[in-house]
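tool_call predict_complex ligand=iron/sulfur cluster
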Amino acid sequence: MTASPQPSGRSFPGSGLAKGLAVTLRTMTKKTVTAQYPETQPDLPPRTRGVIGLFEENCTVCMLCARECPDWCIYIDSHKETVPPAAPGGRERSRNVLDRFAIDFSLCMYCGICIEVCPFDALFWSPEFEYAETDIRDLTHERDKLRDWMWTVPAPPALVPAAEEPKEYAAARKSADRTAAQQAAEAATAARPEPTRPEPARPEPTQPKPDRPEDGDAR
Ligand code: SF4
Ligand code: SF4
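tool_result ok
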């Protein structure tokens, strides 16, 4: 049989209470680190991987993101359209038109590969994180929602002084100008009054022919 170890120091009555109060007082004077979410929104760093935003004007439906996604959780549908030649005598071109772009966030592991491989800067990280659902099937988000998240993507960091303007800015400006011109043309077409069709000429009323006298009447 072995004897139980004895406590080395002697404690005074009430010393435990004093230690506890000292800890309480120390903590009371420190800055709190607990944020009362959702009343207090967290201050997230700009490169937070919250959700993926889609800038669909830049998407050419090349399918690279869907092919490289390790979870196969990007769904893209498209169809081909023929574009008339830009100049007379030119050749017609065909282009892909996006019909569906969806990401299943119940499968996504937030690796960021789709954003890295997109050659046309159509996908971005947004710090938005409040998209929890009670039904897992509702975590597949379609292009409209992905586009809404695009507007929560933080602006890129400022350029160093005297740096060249990135080519993406010029491309985005060109795309925005083209969309604005298209919308203005559509609005002008809608505001133009319908051409009135000329009324068909009414036929002149024909005079009733006088009755030919009957042969018997002439006699
Ligand atoms: S972040 Fe990764 S897992 Fe999620 S959609 Fe992109 S490639 Fe797929
Ligand atoms: S890689 Fe980029 S351009 Fe290609 S389909 Fe995906 S989002 Fe669109």
